[in-house]
Amino acid sequence: MREIVLDTETTGLDPLDGHRIVEIALVELENHVPTGRHFHTYLNPEREMPLDAYQIHGLSTEFLAQHPRFADKADEMLVFMGEAQLVIHNAEFDLRFMDHELSRAGRPAIGRERGIVDTVSLARRKYPGAPASLDALCRRFEIDLSARDKHGAKLDCELLALVYLELIGGREPGLDLAASQRRRALANARAVTRPPRPHGPSEEELAAHAEFLKKLTQPVWLS
C-alpha cells in the first residue's frame, strides 16, 4: 500500500488571514515503510515573514524570495502525491493551508476519499491524556531528535514516518522477508530424505542374540 507523509511550514496559523505555505515535503511509504523517494520544496509566499513564524522554522523573507511560488510547483507535487493515502500530524491545519493554496493556483482541493491519517488523533486514542506533539512522540519511541533544532518540513516528515510506524504497532523493515526466508529454509531442511536403512538382523547379530538367551535362567516370557 502506498502512503504519503505530508508536512508544511507556513507564515502563520490561518490562510484566511493572508498566511501562506513556505515549505512542503512529501515522503513516500510502501507498506508503511519509507522507500527513500520524496518531494521537497521551499516556496516564495509573496509576503513578509512574521518574526514569530521565523523563530519556529528559520525561513526568512530574503531566503524564500529566491524560490518558486506554490503555483509553479503545484503540478509536480500533485503528480508525486498521486492518489495515495496521506499521513499528517494535525491534518486539519495542513489540509486547510493546502486547499487554500490549491484554490489560489486554480487546482482542486485534496479529496478526502483518498484516506487521511491524522497521527495526532491516532496518538491520543492510543495514549489518552499523554502529550501528542511530534517531539513528545519521538521521545516516547526513543527516536533521535538531535537534528531538530527548528521545525523543517522534510525532517519532520521523516520523523513522522518513524512515529507512524510505531503508532500502528511497529514493524522492523525486512521482517516479513526474513520470516519468509526462514520458512523456506525449514521446508528445504524437512525435504532432505535419508536412504532407507536395513532393519533385518545379520547372522552375527542372530548368533549373539542366541548366546545371550542361553544365559537367562528365568525369562519373563516363560513364567
Task: Provide structural commentary.
This protein has 223 residues and is of the alpha/beta class. The chain is built from 9 helices and 5 strands; from the N terminus they run βββαααβαβααααα. A 5-stranded mixed β-sheet has the order 3-2-1-4-5, sandwiched between helices. Strand 4, helix 4 (91-104) and strand 5 (116-118) form a beta-alpha-beta unit. Helix 5 runs parallel beside helix 7 (153-167). The longest helix is centred in the last third of the chain and has 17 residues, at 175-191. It is rod-shaped and about 110 Å long.
Topology summary:
Blueprint: E1 2-10, E2 21-30, E3 33-42, H1 51-57, H2 61-64, H3 70-81, E4 85-88, H4 91-104, E5 116-118, H5 119-126, H6 134-140, H7 153-167, H8 175-191, H9 203-214
Parallel strand pairs: 1-4, 4-5
Antiparallel strand pairs: 1-2, 2-3
Helix pairs in contact: 5-7
